[in-house]
Amino acid sequence: MASTSVSRTVPASPEKVWSLIGGFDALPDWLPYIPESTTLEGGRVRRLTNPEGEVIIERLVDFNEAERHYSYAILQAPFPVNGYVSTLRVHAVPGREDTTEVQWSGRFNPDGATEDEVVDLFTGIYRDGLDALYETLSA
Questions:
Q1: pTM of the model
Q2: Are the beta carbons of 128 and 136 closer than 8 angstroms?
Q3: CA-to-CA distance for 33 and 104, rounded, in angstroms?
Q4: What are the pLDDT digits (tens) for 63-93?
Q5: DSSP E strands: which ranges in the chain?
Q6: Is the separation of the CB atoms in 78 and 95 below 8 Å?
Q7: Is 22 within 8 Å of 70 (Cβ atoms)?
Q8: Which member of 63, 108, 111, 119 has the lowest number of beta carbons within 10 Å of its beta carbon?
């Protein structure tokens, strides 16, 4: 099983960051790669569309409001992986009420690609996503 993780500090309190990204249906609010999200099954499944019109379906597998993190599994996507589970976490930065660390990590099995290729793919997605979050919070 392959894995990757990207962290980024952003210029906002943990409460503000979580209020933006903590909703399972909130990706279009901060992630340009996902302009559309529709919830299914009472909010436990999200159907995402990327700019190319490709569909990604994900299931929420863990959610912790108090600790500010959630995990999800990909059920369907145009990515060369299976067994994908990812976690998005919001961490307070000690002594900095106006700065937060956000960590996006995932583990997955390559399927039709090399481990290096899929690690590079998701490292790029996470990095670009957290860069977009930084820009959204800096505006």
A1: 0.94
A2: no
A3: 15
A4: 999 999 999 999 999 999 999 999 999 999 9
A5: 2-10, 36-40, 45-49, 55-64, 69-76, 81-93, 96-110
A6: no
A7: yes
A8: 111
Give the SS3 label for residue 90: strand
Nearest to 55 by CA among 33, 38, 78: 78
> Cβ distance 2 to 107 under 8 Å?
yes
Instruction: Note whether 93 and 99 are within 8 A (CB).
Output: yes
pLDDT tens digits along 20-71: 999 999 999 999 999 999 999 999 999 999 999 999 999 999 999 999 999 9
Using alpha carbons, list the distances in angstroms from residue 53 to 15, 29, 35, 48, 78: 32, 18, 10, 9, 11
